[in-house]
Amino acid sequence: MIEYKEWRHVFKLDPDKNINDEDLERICESGTDAVIVGGTLRVSFDNTIDLLARIRRFSVPCILEVSNVEAVVPGFDFYFVPLVLNAGNEYATLHHHTEGLKQYGSLVKWSEVAVEGYIIFNPQSEVAKLTGAKIPKDVEDVKALARLADQMLKLPIVYIEYSGAYGDPSWVQSVRSVIEQAHLFYGGGIKDGSQAAEMAKWADTVIVGNIIYEDIEQALKTVHSVKSLT
């Protein structure tokens, strides 16, 4: 049983990006709580199942964040389904999810699925462009979206997504101040342990991604920086 609400630190790996076997082993054996597999562009069944097979050599929990129906691969420990709360087009809203359920609805084991209420903050990111995201203008916008996810929709996860840019900790704190039951994820732009620790003060789980491919040593340091706070 995956207990994601107990996670403090997670690495996210993109099936479209290359990682050698040595670095993959170091990530999986780092002491992180889990590895999420997911990306925005060029994520396919083939590159997803290939990465899953390589991660399966290790005991770390492995979760698929579903980015498109074509890349749904069986065999993961758990599945996250993003619902972009500030999307400006139907790609990431309920119509898109409904289309997926037409194909897989009867096969889904719902005890292994959680919906993430995504709030996208970086207008230059690929996910913002893909979803036509309407970027929050101020803290009140952010709080409203967080309450939408947490109190109205009762989503189990609120995901603050800066996607390649380091976010404003005060905005993460503002989300923390209004959510009552959801688990708070933060992801985006973390380059070192100090940034990871800063966001871990407010987020329940810090997700580290791009730095894995840019500086593996700094990526690995984020595990201790986050875990030392708990």
UniProtKB/TrEMBL annotation:
Its cofactor is Mg(2+). Mg(2+) binds at residues 14, 40. Keywords: Lipid biosynthesis, Lipid metabolism, Magnesium, Metal-binding, Phospholipid biosynthesis, Phospholipid metabolism, Transferase. GO terms for molecular function: heptaprenylglyceryl phosphate synthase activity; magnesium ion binding. Its EC number is 2.5.1.n9. Homodimer. This is Heptaprenylglyceryl phosphate synthase. The gene is pcrB.
